[in-house]
Amino acid sequence: MHVLSVVSEIYPLIKTGGLADVAGALPKALATQGIRVLSLVPGYPQVLARLPHRKEAGRLEGVLGHTAIVTRAQTEGLDLLVLEIPELFDRAGGPYLDEHGRDHPDNWLRFAAFSLAGARIGLGELPHLKLDLVHVHDWQAALLPVYLRHKYASTLPVVCTIHNLAFQGQFAFHIAPRLELPSSALDVDCLEYYGGIGFLKGGLTCSDIVTTVSPTYAREILSPELGMGLDGVLQTRRSALYGIVNGIDTEVWNPAVDPHLPKTYDVRSLARRQQNRAALLGCFGLIDHGGPLFAALTRLTWQKGADMLPEVVEEIVAHGGHLVICGQGDRAIETALQNCAERHHERIGLHVGYSEDLAHLIVSGSDILVQPSRFEPCGLTQLYAMRYGAIPLVGRTGGLSETIIDANDAAMAREVATGFQFHPVEPHSLREAVRRACDAYSDRSSWSSLQRQAMKADFSWERSAAQYAQLFEAVWTAWHQSTGGSAPASAGHA
After folding, report:
1. 323 and 441 share a domain?
2. Which of 9, 304, 379, 380 is deepest in the core (most CB within 10 A)?
3. Domain range enclosing 439
4. Confidence of residue 484 (pLDDT cuts 50, 70, 90)
5. In degrees rounded to 5, what are phi and psi of residue 127?
6. Does residue 140 sit in the same domain as residue 91?
7. Which positions does UniProt annotate for ADP-alpha-D-glucose binding (predicted)?
């Protein structure tokens, strides 16, 4: 089976969050299931710079008023198509924000064009390329199934994955005429959303299957509390909604061979982590007082619970601990954390921004990784932390509740615990979880046992990729039986 994955970011080329990690790891895992994935990504400057030897695969004229050159390249086990429309994607800043941290004002056009191009590629407009199914990710690619169904009357199978329902691609209705879609796509049963246009809503209504990144989150988003205004739409798609837990790339995230680390180690050589701890403290200019080293590697937003971090700083310091934070987001949260770092300059450190090198150092050198998310579809940071022996401390929600076994007395006695959960996700509960973690840390033998148990947890892509493969096969089989189409393409990806 040949699958076109349409995604706005992909590791190692361009990354703003966990979406890129999943997009970069899942194709390699699906290859072991007999599924070949070709990933379509926009031609951002960062992508073009990493792929100097790409070759032209074809041109698409009339992509919402633009001509697209589609190039092809391979890197680190990924087979890639790059959509090159310089006036839309070759610009300063990141994939979604400009160099000043503001949304690109034409994001609606950029990702509508991306979706339309993906639909045309899926339908075979590029020579020597036949595809059996399209897999779209989040709102940036969600117009693709809308174009297939309403513009081209195509039944090509589409699976739509929600990585975070909070980001939906909502725009004013006045853009509707420029999307080049018939009126049938613009009503309340498809794109119309509270008087505007909802890209993700359209994708949810037009895809054959909708997946999200954990079974718990798949249930949570059916509720008004966590459905983000789309719970009614999702209720209508309930029979086609599946939750599949994300995995991690165990080659990229492997403490035994990680080139980012001052000292590599494995479950049998945990003592070596101390050199990474020293390097991490030194990176933030902190003095090691011997207490537990907490860390937060997250977007500094309300969703991630980062506003609660300043409220637990005194608790951490009172227990002789340290806290390092790496992330960016709301200016008010950044300012509050900077004030904490200035007040406790020997124990609290803040890095505003993101660094892949620093992320690897944090999970390899910290003792406890704090992830107090108010909602979390799956989360990858806690999986990286466990693999590296940093014990997660998480809010009990979404994928966090599924991937962490709380270190209560019974779980510790049976040696199955892998972290700490707290609920409700409020400051007082987080403070209590910090106290529990500090108490556990004081028993060094027990703590080492907890680290080893966390490091043994298997969050590779093998099981999850098999679930995706089964869904893809089921969707394609249903389409084949309903249309009498040909067997899955064997000549594609030449």
Report:
1. yes
2. 379
3. 270-456
4. confident
5. -65, 150
6. yes
7. 15
- What's the pLDDT score for residue 224? 96
Task: Specify the 3-state DSSP secondary structure of 10.
Answer: strand
Q: Are 423 and 396 in contact (CB under 8 A)?
A: yes
Lowest mean pLDDT among 318-322, 358-362, 483-487: 483-487
Clarify whether residues 400 and 329 are in a common domain. yes
Beta carbons of 372 and 382 less than 8 angstroms apart: no
* Domains held by the chain: number: 2
Binding-site positions for ADP-alpha-D-glucose: 15
Asked if 235 and 182 sit in the same domain, the reply is: yes
Residues 115-151: b if buried by 16+ CB within 10 A, e if exposed: bbbbbbbbeeebeebbbbbbbbbbbbbbbbbbbbbbb
> Assign residue 274 a region: left if phi > 0, alpha if psi is -120 to 50, beta otherwise?
alpha
Q: Which residues are annotated as a binding site?
A: 15
Here the CATH number for the domain that contains residue 181 is 3.40.50.2000
User: Which conformational region is residue 194 in: left (phi greater than 0), alpha (psi within -120 to 50 degrees), or beta?
Assistant: left
Give 42's strand partners: 83
Strands 133-137 and 55-63: unpaired
Please indicate, yes or no, whether residues 431 and 477 belong to a single structural domain of this protein: no
Q: How far is CA 317 from the centre of its chain?
A: 32
d(Cα 432, Cα 218) in Å, to the nearest integer? Answer: 29
- Determine how many CB atoms are found less than 10 A away from the CB of residue 27: 25
Residue 26 in any domain: the answer is yes
Report the alpha-carbon distance of residue 147 to residue 85 in Å, rounded: 19
Q: Please state, in angstroms and rounded to a whole number, the distance separating the CA atoms of residues 157 and 134.
A: 6
